[in-house]
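We were asked to recover a plausible sequence for a given structure. The inputs and outputs are reproduced exactly as logged, with field labels preserved.

PROBLEM: sequence recovery
POSITIONS: 298
GIVEN STRUCTURE:
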């Protein structure tokens, strides 16, 4: 039990480093690609990586599980890949990473509302505090960067809701399915839709490949797809199964620190007020995530 407990913390730290770096990779890739090209290409490359190493796992997915694997793929991978890219066309990567911290709060909300998982009073307070922090972060960001459209924060918030749906689905309906099988199954479902999107974005115009920034952007997407999506997805699915949905989504505790460091190194601005908003969000996440101590009877 102790070994398993230590392992889940290692998984959490590794995922935080990988996903914390993903935001700056998206930002750099957008210098040469459109948001739709980035989302589609990221999905396709990830799918190829996963199919190459785990195509044999597809046959281990039972018929009754495919519906949930498909829903998991759409909400946990397909739509967020586009939404995060769209958001970063208007908002700094550091801010996007902090907004992503809403995942545990939405996990609690959806767990109670949809999946009938009981919530404590402290968790509800944590959710309220988290959304207060979110409001501060967005309003201060809009004031600090008037040239950025903070309405695009809605794309990130919507993605956190979808991630929360995905976490609860994996825990409730896919507990018997191996993590790699879930990941491969996800991309079997969303591979063709992503290819169709990429075709309609004029990505395959040969003139594009003569542009250095276009080719460099593809390199960033390859790194993002392999580490930030393919490898991280398997690690995350494993973490959900070995722990709890809320613990797994706590990767968002450390992830913003990594992303903020990358953002500041890249010249992004981040005020003390935004820092306060970030702290309030993390306090909310902590309260919503903290386990209730059992009272022993004497």
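RECOVERED SEQUENCE:
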């Amino acid at each position: 039990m102790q070994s398993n407990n230590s392992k889940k913390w290692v998984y959490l730290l590794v995922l935080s480093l990988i996903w914390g770096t993903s935001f700056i990779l998206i930002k750099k890739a957008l210098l040469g690609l459109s948001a739709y090209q980035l989302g589609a290409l990221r999905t396709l490359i990830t799918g190829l990586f996963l199919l190459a190493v785990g195509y044999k796992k597809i046959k281990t997915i039972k018929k009754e599980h495919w519906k949930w694997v498909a829903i998991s793929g759409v909400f946990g991978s397909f739509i967020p890949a586009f939404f995060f890219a769209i958001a970063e066309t208007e908002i700094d990567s550091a801010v996007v990473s902090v907004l992503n911290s809403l995942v545990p709060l939405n996990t609690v909300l959806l767990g109670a509302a949809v999946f009938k998982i009981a919530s404590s009073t402290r968790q509800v307070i944590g959710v309220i505090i988290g959304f207060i922090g979110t409001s501060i972060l967005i309003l201060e960001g809009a004031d600090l960067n008037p040239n950025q459209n903070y309405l695009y924060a809605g794309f990130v918030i919507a993605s956190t809701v979808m991630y929360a749906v995905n976490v609860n689905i994996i825990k409730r309906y896919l507990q018997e399915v191996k993590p790699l099988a879930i990941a491969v199954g996800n991309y079997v479902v969303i591979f063709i839709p992503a290819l169709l999107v990429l075709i309609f974005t004029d990505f395959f115009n040969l003139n594009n490949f003569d542009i250095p920034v276009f080719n460099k952007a593809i390199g960033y997407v390859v790194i993002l797809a392999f580490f930030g999506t393919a490898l991280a997805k398997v690690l995350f699915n494993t973490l959900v199964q070995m722990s709890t949905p809320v613990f797994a989504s706590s990767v968002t505790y450390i992830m913003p620190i990594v992303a903020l460091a990358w953002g500041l190194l890249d010249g992004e601005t981040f005020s003390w007020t935004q820092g306060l908003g970030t702290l309030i969000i993390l306090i909310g996440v902590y309260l919503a995530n903290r386990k209730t101590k059992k009272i022993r009877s004497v």
